[in-house]
Amino acid sequence: MKLWQKENTVTSEKIERFTVGRDREMDLFLAEFDVLGNLAHATMLETIGLLTADDLSALKVELFSIYKEIQLGNFIIEEGVEDVHSQVELMLTRKLGDVGKKIHSGRSRNDQVLVDMKLYTRDRLFQVVRAAEKLFDVLISQSEKHKNDLLPGYTHLQIAMPSSFGLWFGAYAEALIDDVIQLNAAYRLANRNPLGSGAGYGSSFPLNRTLTTELLGFEGMHHNVVYAQMSRGRTEQAALTAIASLAATVSRLAMDVCLYNSQNFSFIVLPDDLTTGSSIMPHKKNPDVAELLRAKTNRMKALPMEVTMVLSNLPSGYHRDMQLLKEILMPAFDEILDCLDVATFMLENIRVKENLLADTKYDLLFSVERVNELVINGVPFRDAYRQVGAEIGDGSYTAPRDLKHTHEGSIGNLQNDLIKARMDQELARFGFEKVEKALSDLIVS
């Protein structure tokens, strides 16, 4: 029987298939977190007298056993079992009889899935942050390595002023800091405890929600039980908004790689083992990796809007519409993690071409240097600007290639050390260590 099923009631097979949807598939990702939530809830129930010490001890043994099976990849949701919560409770009841049935006291499937989703989202955001940090480190490393390799800078896709690969790599490194700030905002929404909110209206049992908050390493709880339910969807949307921001950074980087790798630009080279060929043109070395990164990350930009549409016009309280959020959120984490991993690998192996600006076709890049040269010698800027324009027009212009960029954040002063320090500061705000310790204590207690 389902957790919600009454005696002598049967749901149509067609309706069951439609309402369960992909839940059994998606819920496999929640299994370890459901066990963690059960451990915290059972521990709390014992402190308020709804479980005996022996009950708790027996439940812990079985929950630890289930957790190990999940870690080994052996956990399944059996045919006919509706979701992960039902499967775990079924396994406990098979082993422990009535003790297994007691664990649902003071709890609803609503707050059970909420706490699972909070724990899952928090964990996956942690993984995304670590993957973003790895990409950041590669970008900073490449920026330092190639800080003296000049690159044409563009506005409107017209050559504008001298840039450098140091600036290019470093720009995307700093962009990741802003993405990490958004990931932190999403992480904080995920890092609040909804357990004990029941179906959205609490319980008459004297639940100790502070205790479960501490046991699960949450920053705090959702105090209002109605809002705890309303946080479903908002948490997913925040996570997907952060993922979309990160995806936009990777997408733009991928587009640059596609552009700079083309023969018309020819600024970088992707090694042979990072490219694919053509079935008809033997000379082709296609940057498929960057193109697919661009497409995959562009698609992710739309995900927050999908959540927005699912949540549109919903009143307060729980609604089954929210079940669909799993199907939007969970694949997104896998996709962004894969993209970050591939982007990092690509940038580790990318080759930069040297002495690009020695080509006379880039002479006009240095026109501002010529203007500044005149200004330093006392010519008013507007007069210097017109003079250089005239030189370009009559062919007397000569490109001054001796660059003197020293201000903060310029070619000669990248300030990568300060960018790195800022990233470290933002990473420290997550407080991952507290979560890791709490969950470690919960599993070994």
Automatic annotation (TrEMBL):
One of the protein's GO biological processes: L-arginine biosynthetic process via ornithine
Protein's gene: argH
Pfam families: Lyase_1
Ranges for domain Fumarate lyase N-terminal: 37-299
InterPro entries on file: Argininosuccinate_lyase, Fumarase/histidase_N, Fumarate_lyase_CS, Fumarate_lyase_fam, Fumarate_lyase_N, L-Aspartase-like
Pathway connected to this protein: Amino-acid biosynthesis; L-arginine biosynthesis; L-arginine from L-ornithine and carbamoyl phosphate: step 3/3
Listed EC numbers: 4.3.2.1
Protein name: Argininosuccinate lyase
Keyword terms of this UniProt record: Amino-acid biosynthesis, Arginine biosynthesis, Cytoplasm, Lyase
Compartments, as annotated in UniProt: Cytoplasm
Catalytic reaction annotation: 2-(N(omega)-L-arginino)succinate = fumarate + L-arginine
GO cellular component: cytosol
Family: Belongs to the lyase 1 family. Argininosuccinate lyase subfamily.
Record has Transmembrane helix as a keyword: no
Coiled coil feature spans: none
A single GO molecular function term of this UniProt record: argininosuccinate lyase activity
Enzyme class: lyase
Organism from which the protein derives: Dyadobacter koreensis
Source taxon at top rank: Bacteria
